[in-house]
Write a structure and sequence with these properties.
single chain; 10 helices; 9-stranded mixed β-sheet; 2 domains; disordered C terminus; 38% helix; Spore Coat Polysaccharide Biosynthesis Protein SpsA, Chain A
């Protein structure tokens, strides 16, 4: 078996070094790591520092042609060796437990119907089902009844809202915490349309992994554990995040679920919940620009709802 890990990074040198160090001590390490770097302060020492952190794992270090998680991951996917069996997609600010890769690959080896397996984040940020906020999110069709469920509103329930005992199915996976059969990614690419707002990608992993799930089953394996440090570096401003929350969810809905009135109503109801939540969070220090971005994004969505999409859900080479 040949495993390749892909990491898109930007201005997070210390985080990336920690991630590579955790890859180097895996019980089943990847054969190759492809890092696509869009940092502003690149220098000749970067690749050598990363190589030292990755230990004996072969590292391929590339400067990003186009900044953005979708574009950078596509650049790495174009470099995949034909002999690669499994592709692990990682964020640059995660630290893996030593058997992370082994557990994910074992899951795929044990079930040929599985095409992708997600890992488990030990410090989840999502509100749990049992909380009052969790029930409110379910009321507004932002959460569904089960983790990983894609809803008719275009939203998807986070995988980490409930602590499961065993592996469980999911409609989608995270783009920075999953392993896929390389054969299902051949010719599939992330949609650049999700980088509409100055290169910031939002829901691009939902788009790709939901498409991958059409060729087989997806699941989450809680035994493949990682810590997500949620690095403050490189975070998008609140206005662009608010825009992306509205526009990119609608993009996914239009592409994969439909443009009928029923889906539009579900989407608008969910966005009302997002907007009210962002308004309520202003009292706790959140910038009002996120709610303003939601409002502006909704105007864009309603204007473009029946227009053709600029790009297809994926491209095939």
């Amino acid at each position: 078996m040949s495993i390749c890990a892909i990491i898109a990074t930007r201005n997070r040198r210390a985080d990336l070094l920690a991630c590579l160090a955790s890859l180097a001590v895996q019980t089943h390490p990847p054969d190759e790591v492809i890092v696509v770097d869009a940092s502003h302060d690149l220098c000749g020492d970067e690749a050598r520092s990363y190589q030292r952190a990755s230990g004996s794992v072969r590292l391929r270090y590339e400067h990003a042609r186009t900044p953005g998680a979708a574009s950078q991951r596509n650049q790495a996917l174009d470099l995949l060796d034909a002999a690669t069996d499994y592709v692990v997609l990682l964020d640059d600010d995660v630290v893996l437990e030593p058997d992370y890769c082994a557990v994910l690959v074992d899951a795929l080896e044990s079930d040929r119907n599985l095409v992708g397996v997600g890992g488990w984040i030990t410090n989840p940020q999502a509100a749990p089902f049992e909380s009052a906020l969790g029930w409110l999110l379910r009321l507004f069709l932002i959460y569904g009844a089960e983790p990983g469920q894609v809803l008719p509103s275009g939203f998807n329930t986070p995988m980490f809202v409930r602590q499961p005992g065993t592996r469980f199915p999911s409609d989608c996976l995270e783009g920075g915490n999953a392993c896929f059969r390389a054969e299902v990614l051949r010719g599939l690419r992330f949609d650049h349309g999700y980088e509409r707002f100055s290169g910031y990608a939002y829901a691009e992993d939902l788009d790709l992994t939901y498409a991958v799930g059409r060729s087989g089953r997806l699941c989450v394996e809680p035994r493949a554990r990682m810590l997500h440090n949620v690095s403050p570096a490189g975070r998008v401003d609140n206005l662009r995040l608010g825009l992306a929350q509205a526009v990119n969810r609608a993009r996914f809905l239009r592409k994969h679920l439909g443009r009928d009135v029923g889906h539009l109503v579900c989407y608008l109801w969910a966005m009302l919940g997002v907007w009210l939540l962002n308004i309520a969070m202003i009292a706790r220090g959140r910038s009002p620009l996120r709610a303003l971005g939601n409002f502006a994004g909704l105007a864009i969505v309603l204007t473009e709802w029946h227009q053709p999409l600029a790009e297809e859900p994926w491209c095939r080479n």
